[in-house]
Amino acid sequence: MIRMRRKILWASCFCFAAAFFLVLTLQVITELGNSENKVSVISSLHSSPLKPGERHAFQFKKQELHSSFKTESDVNHYPVLLWWSPLTGETGRFSQCGEDVCFFTINKTYQHNQMTRAFLFYGTDFSIDSLPLPRKDYHDWALFHEESPKNNYKLIHEATITLFNHTATFSRHSHLPLTTQYLEGVEVLKSLKFMIPLQMKNSLRKRLAPLVYVQSDCNPPSDRDSYVRELMCHIEVDSYGECLHNSDLPQHLRNPAAMDDGNFLKILAQYKFILAFENAICEDYITEKLWRPLKLGVVPVYFGSPSIVDWLPSNKSAILVSSFSHPRDLARYIKTLDTNDEEYESYLQWKLKGDISNPRLLRTMKERKWGVQDITQDNYIDTFECMVCNRVWENIRRKEKVCLPQTRGILVLIVKPWLDLSPKDVDTKL
Q1: 36-68: string of b/e by CB count within 10 Å (b at 16+)?
Q2: Domain Fucosyltransferase C-terminal: where (predicted)?
Q3: Is CB count within 10 Å lower at the N or C end of the chain?
Q4: Are 334 and 301 in contact (CB under 8 A)?
């Protein structure tokens, strides 16, 4: 009898222990399900997967961003993005990009840090003689270049541009297009702030040429000065810059820094036409040379991006040099508009009516995630940094998904010997 009671007691204890362990195991599974994302992300951040014993000591802090970070160990919990070209000048800074956190620095001692995930390059300073080599398979390269290839001819070549995983350039095909980097917004295009009535412009024509040209970067790759020089043989042009100079600005406006001065803009607004010639001929490379006359209510005579029609506010808002076979023909057309008020004003109807009809331009400005001369919005450098940060995290999370199925299999191996359940039973109960 005593023996029977002892067997019952031992059986009860075993059943209780088994039930307790089952409950504990289910809790472990639940907790692991909540934390497996953290473990796998951290593993992805390192150059090689963490060993099981290391995971407990390596705490993930992605959602625990504080106002200040004071210790070196804080950096070891986040992807490091190193500006190889010291554009920002900051030795170290954490940034919150949506739900993602990254550490940005210009300190090149981080080149071989196990948390470094991306190198950021400023295009003008990019040099093939100084690169963070050897490049590891988990190192992304990102390019920020708001200028034309004139500033760095190496970036013209496909072999160079394809080195970068993330780009922010003037091209619409860039990951972060900077095509409208000189345009504050559609409202400034509609604004009549600087616009001078046509009747007054006709009166000013007694002392002003129909065309104005303001350039001090002479003989660029576009060879614009050669074209303007020939154009001057067929029509009068007032040239205020150092290139083909024949007219003088007031002394206080001769500094290049005065190009955005209100008084300088008022002088340009008096003209009927502005020669808007880019320094390089590239798809989508559009600068203030186009946007400025459009904002002032002056008709731009544009020479530059072959895709310019994709960005004009309306189908009839600029005169395209590419439409004329010779400067002589362009001069003849401008003279015709100069003496025909109705035809001339047809190029300004979009502005007078406040009607921007280009859906691409409207959509781009609406969807743009950065601002120009707007302190209420991020600038394009901050947006570029966050774009790279987010894309780095996307790669980390993509690798994380590959690791998830492994966790469940490990748990089965742990549970089965204790509960003496078949794999099918485990799957059913879990």
Answers
A1: bbbbbbbbbbeeeebeeeebeeeebbbeeeeee
A2: 210-397
A3: N
A4: yes
User: 81 phi and psi, to 5 degrees?
Assistant: -115, 115
Structure tokens at 82: 């190193």
Query: CB of 240 within 8 A of CB of 208?
Result: no
Which amino acid, 367?
A: E
Per-residue model confidence as pLDDT tens digits over 259-316 = 889 999 999 999 999 999 999 999 999 999 999 999 999 999 999 999 999 999 999 9
Mean pLDDT over each residue of the chain, to the nearest integer: 83
For the residues of 72-115, what is the DSSP string, one character each?
Answer: HHHHTTS-EEEESS-SS--S-EEEEETTEEEEEE--GGGGG-TT
Q: Are 135 and 266 in contact (CB under 8 A)?
A: no
Strand-pair category, 100-105 with 93-97? antiparallel
Please enumerate in sequence order all residues whose Cβ is within 8 A of that of 359, keeping only pairs 6 or more positions apart, or say none: none
pTM above 0.85, yes or no: no
Q: Are 56 and 93 in contact (CB under 8 A)?
A: no
SS3 content of the chain, % helix, strand, coil (to 5): 45, 10, 40
pLDDT of residue 67: 42
